[in-house]
Amino acid sequence: MRLSICIAILVSLGLLGCVDSPNFDNTPSIQYNSIDKFTIFDTFSQANADSLVITIDFEDGDGDLGVPPEQISDTAFVNRVYKDWGNYELTVFERNEDGTFKLRPLALFSSLFFPVLKRDGKPGPIKGKLDLRQTFPATRFGKLTTVKLQVRIRDRALNVSNVIETDTISIYLD
């Protein structure tokens, strides 16, 4: 009985060693997963604000996604390396009355970052889900506006992913 259990364990371990690791490209790839809206109370403006959680699925061959907190807090480093945008780019498009969409520039989205996703620091493939929570400033004069967002990410080697687009969602914008 013990011999058969030992053999079963050895065979299982041997089979696990035969599993190939995924072969993802070193340029990150993303896919749209979902967008959810929550209403929060903004204590600064004393008004309700819309908070969105955008979920994307990602793959990266060398696992160099995310930026360490000490680099994010180093303004000179961020300006030199990441320049116009962080490692998460969010672009907002507002629906016009005729149903077309136009770019809605929002300065608060100019430098977004997410933390390092592969904590062991070893190069290797990584796959998963990434949630970005973004709150839109609350104002007493905002109007309900239908928007869609475009997202792309980049890794520490500055390889830029494809662009994905969310479903439309209605939020309050000034």
From TrEMBL:
Protein name: Uncharacterized protein
Keywords in alphabetical order: Signal
Species this chain originates from: Arundinibacter roseus
Signal peptide: 1-17
